[in-house]
TrEMBL record:
Pfam families for the chain: TPR_16, TPR_19
Cited PANTHER family: PROTEIN O-MANNOSYL-TRANSFERASE TMTC2
UniProt-recorded name of the protein: Tetratricopeptide repeat protein
Signal sequence extent: 1-28
Species for this entry: Neoaquamicrobium sediminum
Keywords: Signal
Domain of life: Bacteria
Residues annotated as transmembrane: none
Length: 271
């Protein structure tokens, strides 16, 4: 297991990556496909974007791009397209799609929330915070937006403010797995992997936990050097190839930060 010093160092190095994962989870549920109907264009795939392979994402982006070009004001298509673009690493294009949609629908909560996600992914954190706050309705607050605001505050380096909002969101939606997982990610950002894992395990054991929640648990387990366990958790949601690819990427990331050898050695020492 990592020492506190090593854990804190690893947490700091992984801050940007982990924060992006937390934010993606926070905002993923903000859009509901039935709230706005602007056309009859059906989405080419109903598979969760997070579980798609690189090849599938590329194909989905091409298909959605053609549909989007015909009707850029279709909310469902535009938001799906922006999400796929973001997963493909085309952050600027994703933001452009969402910026146009936010101009077309300046008062729609789901659009503003997704626009906030795109802004945050592009590193524009203050505008992202503004977009999410504008999406909120004080007289009828949405717990998803409260959690999303907290995730952005985490990225801004304000964990105490973020956790107050996570607790408020849990009061509004007790036991919600996505909030518990985001709270775990908040602790991960400060390098407190044990607390992060505790929250994530609560999340996965709660009814309604989805693939993203379990993948976050796999992440925090892997960051503690327990790669076999992380791969087993990931394999429950992804294909064996995808699970192995995720763990391989994690190892590569840690290796680049001179953390992999230490994690591997400490894993051996605990066996």
């Amino acid at each position: 297991m990592l020492t506190n010093r090593a854990t804190n160092a690893t947490g700091k190095r992984l801050r940007t990556t982990a924060a992006a994962l937390a934010l993606g989870l926070a905002l993923a549920g903000c859009a509901t496909k039935d709230r706005i109907t602007t056309g009859s264009v059906s989405r080419p795939s109903s598979a969760p974007v997070e579980t798609m392979s690189t090849q599938q994402l590329a194909s989905e982006a091409q298909t959605l791009g053609q549909i989007y070009a015909k009707n850029p004001k279709d909310v469902n298509t535009a938001m799906r397209y922006a999400s796929v673009l973001q997963m493909n690493g085309r952050t600027d294009q994703s933001l452009a799609v969402m910026r146009k949609l936010a101009i077309d629908y300046p008062k729609e909560r789901q659009v503003l929330a997704a626009y906030g996600k795109a802004l945050a992914a592009a590193g524009e954190l203050e505008p992202a915070l503004d977009a999410v706050r504008r999406a909120q309705t004080p007289e009828y607050p949405d717990w998803k937006l409260v959690s999303a605001e907290a995730a952005i505050l985490d990225q801004l380096g304000k964990p105490q403010e973020a956790r107050q909002l996570y607790r408020r969101a849990l009061e509004m939606k007790p036991g919600e797995p996505s909030i518990l997982s985001n709270l775990g990610m908040s602790h991960l950002l400060e390098g407190d992997l044990k607390t992060a894992e505790n929250y994530m395990r609560q999340a996965v054991e709660t009814q309604g936990a989805d693939s993203r929640v379990r993948q976050n648990l796999a992440l925090v387990v892997g960051l503690q050097g327990r790669f076999k366990e992380a791969e087993e958790i990931a394999s429950r949601e992804l294909s064996p190839d995808q699970a192995q690819a995720n763990v391989a990427y994690l190892r590569s990331m840690l290796s680049q930060q001179n953390a992999w050898n230490q994690l591997e050695q400490e894993e051996k020492n605990t066996n």
